[in-house]
């Protein structure tokens, strides 16, 4: 698969977790693709820079309106604007139901690192730290390995962690993991993937808990 196909596979699977009336914050990278797979009007997208009701539907994109990742977006019917301080107040107050984040690394207890690489200048933590603390559910979307083929799901993160809160779910192009009591449980394999391949490409320990259909 191409890079775009891999990213869309992950985003499409993450979209299946968004059902019914909920407020969702999408992080930078793969998470931004999730919105294109949502048809339920009850799902409202939130951005840290002050918009509830983000839309990326073709025809409503406003080049002067951007999300927290500086990508042009539009406003859905009934959208509301507010300042960034109020937006972070919504996050910290527990009013975001689900956050979908990208990561650099995740470990076998569900801790993630997604804001700093020692020795490199990258964008910084943004709202990820607040979302990990304030969102009711946190889902991670990431490729299973880095560009050099190393596992991104580790026994322990080697980059600075984002928060001491564990995420709830990790979705890659190979598998879906749930974090239960700080343990990784592999609950689903992506089409055409074997559990042996997942084990080969995962440094972290995990429990096999595949659902039988």
UniProtKB/TrEMBL annotation:
Q: What class of enzyme is it?
A: transferase
Query: What GO terms are given for molecular function?
Result: succinyl-CoA:3-oxo-acid CoA-transferase activity
Q: Which family does it belong to?
A: Belongs to the 3-oxoacid CoA-transferase subunit B family.
Transferase keyword on record: yes
**Any idea what this protein is called?**
3-oxoacid CoA-transferase
**From the record, what ranges are coiled-coil?**
none
According to its UniProt record, the EC number is 2.8.3.5
Q: Which organism is it from?
A: Cytobacillus purgationiresistens
Ordered alphabetically, the record's keywords are: Transferase
Kindly indicate whether the keyword Transferase belongs to this entry. Answer: yes
